[in-house]
Amino acid sequence: MSHVKAGGTAKNVHDSPGQRLGVKLYGGQKVKVGQVIVRQVGMTKRPGPGTKMSRNYTIHAAKDGVVSFKTRKVRLFSGKSVRRTEVSVN
Q1: Could you give the CA distance from residue 33 to residue 90 in angstroms, rounded to a whole number?
Q2: Which among 17, 65, 69, 70 would be 20 to 30 A from 59, CA to CA?
Q3: CATH label of the domain that carries residue 71
Q4: Cα–Cα–Cα angle for 66, 75, 46, nearest 5°?
């Protein structure tokens, strides 16, 4: 017979690396075409003039310029009005 008792199963051992989300370029910084400004999950920040949003909600610069952030009211599907941050390139 074995001298080692049965070991339990390990359930919480999977560890995935971070996704490196967040704001990559801040207001007042210069940006070139195609550079990533914000990486996010969902539309927490909205694209404004001079920016475009990719399929995974990453906001890129559509032209050369300076990044700016401002808050504006957005109407949800339910009719509720909420404040959201808009990213633009001037």
Answers
A1: 12
A2: 17
A3: 2.40.50.100
A4: 25
Q: Does residue 51 lie in a domain region? A: yes
What is the value of pTM for the model shown?
0.79
Reading the block at residue 7, the tokens are 């070991």
Q: Is residue 8 part of a domain?
A: no
Radius of gyration of the chain (CA): 21
* pLDDT tens, per residue, the chain with 90 residues: 667 777 777 787 788 899 999 999 999 999 999 999 999 999 999 999 999 999 999 999 999 999 999 999 999 999 999 999 999 999
Q: What does the longest C-alpha to C-alpha distance in the chain come to?
A: 76
What does the alpha-carbon distance between residue 16 and residue 70 come to, in Å, rounded to a whole number? 34
Residue 69 counted as domain residue: yes
The DSSP-derived string for 8-59 is: PPP-S---------EESS-TT-EE-TT-EEEE-SSSSEEE-TTEEE-TTS-E
